[in-house]
């Protein structure tokens, strides 16, 4: 779709398109967190070890992360409708495989197929929203997208805990499958083509380098959280990933039509918003990884209890996403980022002083405060960065933003788990604690200190953001378009 026609879609049609996208994105993200609580049940049912069973979550995130950098190419190669239908059909097929799987191998195959579809959905949704809406309305629209991204992780552990306690783990996939099928039917009849086709040629070498580069790094950092940084597997995959990524970037800078346009990082405001969002994401991932360990392993509560503890914060983040989107459209992103990262920093401090008697209610409130801060940062920063790019580069901007965020999440999780493990074992060896539970709590406290550093880094960087209001940018863009038209006529 040409840039000048991008915002001429009727409001009713746009709302239907967003509803279709939100449904697909919701179940894709829900699926990412759904099996974490179900792993013990899968181990018993399919007779596999804990290290093997955790691959049902790792492989989904890995394939998801590999697909994201390629989405810019796919969005320019295929129509919005065709690409979304492919993504949803892939996701539904993988869900069916996983639901019917009598063996762990078939379950893994289902998760891989799911990951292919899920990796396409979020960048495609964000690119379509940025294309359909004028700059002055993008914050509100992206805030609606934040509903899916926030609510899904909130319901995942809680829903999974309830289902696994009452039914088989296969039921989780049977719950998702009908929703996926309904969304496919709705997309077939309601979805319109909103992105611009450029018909780039398939650069197979770039795709192979991208897969090896991002796949190697994501796998290496994920494995480091479980096996340690000194593992031969971790070191090998990180080395292969780093070399492949370097070659991928070099190739993208030298080919005529790159699969992923790294030159978007030349825009200083776009790059700064991405870095601020990455710092926020690392700190957020810390809470979602470490709090369940504290609640379940150190305090003896159930998986469902830990999910319920995270639920209010995630719900608050989801409810606030459209509101912060509206605020962004009025005042810009700088004030939101500073306020949000301040709340995230303040909400992280109590987690550095956990004990065996810490109030779960107080920690739930502090987690909600942290998630309120995250809601003020994630989508507003994504929108502020993408607003700096012309429509022709938005697909590359969304792919870059989501890729770097995925890498940051993997690195952050690995670093926090490593810090927690080493601090816990060090405290136990030094006799600083009297029990294994005390050592674990000490390790979690130190890991949250690292999460605090990430939040503070993001807070400091947010003061350097340029607070350009979206409505002002849109007026300037209109004036620029009129000037270009006059010049071309002359």
Question: Would you spell out the secondary-structure blueprint of this structure?
Answer:
Elements: H1 11-34, H2 39-46, H3 50-53, H4 55-67, H5 71-77, H6 80-100, H7 104-132, H8 135-166, H9 170-190, H10 204-227, H11 232-252, H12 268-298, H13 303-331, H14 334-348, H15 360-375, H16 378-386, H17 394-429, H18 436-462, H19 470-489
Helix pairs in contact: 1-7, 1-8, 1-9, 4-7, 4-10, 5-17, 6-7, 6-9, 7-8, 7-17, 8-13, 8-16, 8-19, 10-11, 10-17, 12-13, 12-14, 12-15, 12-16, 12-17, 12-18, 13-15, 14-15, 14-18, 17-18
Organism: Marinococcus halophilus
Transmembrane segments: 16-43, 55-75, 82-100, 112-129, 141-159, 171-190, 202-222, 228-249, 269-295, 307-328, 335-354, 360-386, 407-428, 440-465
Main location: membrane
Secondary-structure element pattern, one letter each: HHHHHHHHHHHHHHHHHHH
CATH superfamily of the largest domain: MFS general substrate transporter like domains
Q: Outline, from the CA principal axes?
A: globular
In angstroms, what separates the terminal alpha carbons?
Answer: 26 Å
CATH architecture of the largest domain: Up-down Bundle
List unreliable stretches of 5+ residues.
Answer: 1-7, 478-490
Give the helix/strand class: mainly alpha
């Amino acid at each position: 779709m040409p840039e000048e026609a991008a915002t001429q879609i009727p409001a009713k049609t746009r709302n239907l398109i967003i509803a279709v996208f939100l449904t697909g994105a919701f179940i894709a993200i829900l699926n990412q967190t759904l099996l974490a609580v179900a792993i013990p049940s899968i181990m018993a049912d399919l007779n596999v070890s804990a290290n093997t069973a955790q691959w049902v979550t790792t492989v989904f995130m890995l394939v998801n992360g590999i697909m994201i950098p390629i989405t810019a190419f796919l969005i320019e190669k295929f129509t919005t409708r065709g690409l979304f239908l492919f993504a949803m059909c892939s996701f539904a097929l993988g869900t069916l495989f996983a639901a019917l799987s009598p063996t762990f191998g078939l379950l893994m195959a289902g998760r891989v197929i799911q990951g292919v579809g899920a990796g396409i959905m979020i960048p495609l949704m964000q690119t379509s929203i940025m294309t359909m809406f004028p700059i002055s309305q993008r914050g509100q629209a992206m805030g609606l997208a934040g509903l899916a991204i926030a609510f899904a992780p909130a319901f995942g552990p809680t829903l999974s805990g309830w289902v696994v306690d009452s039914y088989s783990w296969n039921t989780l996939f049977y719950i998702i499958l009908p929703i996926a099928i309904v969304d496919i039917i709705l997309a077939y009849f309601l979805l319109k083509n909103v992105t611009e086709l450029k018909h780039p040629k398939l650069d197979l070498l770039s795709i192979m380098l991208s897969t090896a580069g991002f796949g190697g790094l994501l796998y290496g950092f994920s494995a480091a959280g479980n096996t340690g940084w000194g593992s031969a597997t971790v070191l090998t995959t990180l080395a292969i990933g780093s070399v492949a990524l370097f070659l991928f970037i070099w190739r993208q800078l030298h080919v005529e039509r790159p699969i992923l346009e790294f030159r978007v990082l030349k825009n200083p405001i776009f790059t700064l918003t991405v870095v601020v969002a990455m710092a926020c994401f690392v700190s957020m991932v810390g809470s979602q990884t470490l709090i369940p360990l504290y609640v379940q392993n150190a305090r003896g509560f159930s998986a469902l209890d830990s999910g319920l503890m995270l639920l209010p914060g995630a719900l608050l983040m989801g409810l606030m996403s459209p509101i912060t989107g509206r605020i962004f459209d009025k005042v810009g992103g700088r004030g939101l980022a500073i306020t949000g990262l301040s709340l995230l920093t303040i909400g992280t401090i109590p987690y550095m002083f956990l004990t065996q008697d810490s109030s779960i209610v107080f920690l739930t409130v502090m987690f909600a405060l942290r998630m309120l801060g995250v809601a003020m940062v994630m989508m507003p920063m994504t929108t502020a960065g993408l607003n700096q790019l012309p429509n022709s580069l938005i697909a590359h901007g969304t792919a870059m933003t989501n890729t770097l965020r995925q890498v940051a999440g993997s690195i952050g999780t690995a670093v926090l788990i490593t810090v927690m493990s080493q601090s816990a074992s060090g405290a136990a060896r030094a006799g600083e604690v009297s029990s294994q539970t005390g050592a674990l709590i000490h390790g979690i406290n130190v890991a949250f200190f690292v999460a605090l550093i990430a939040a503070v880094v993001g807070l400091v960087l947010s003061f350097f953001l340029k607070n350009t209001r979206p409505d002002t940018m849109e007026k300037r863009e209109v004036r620029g378009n009129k000037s270009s038209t006059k010049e071309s006529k002359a």
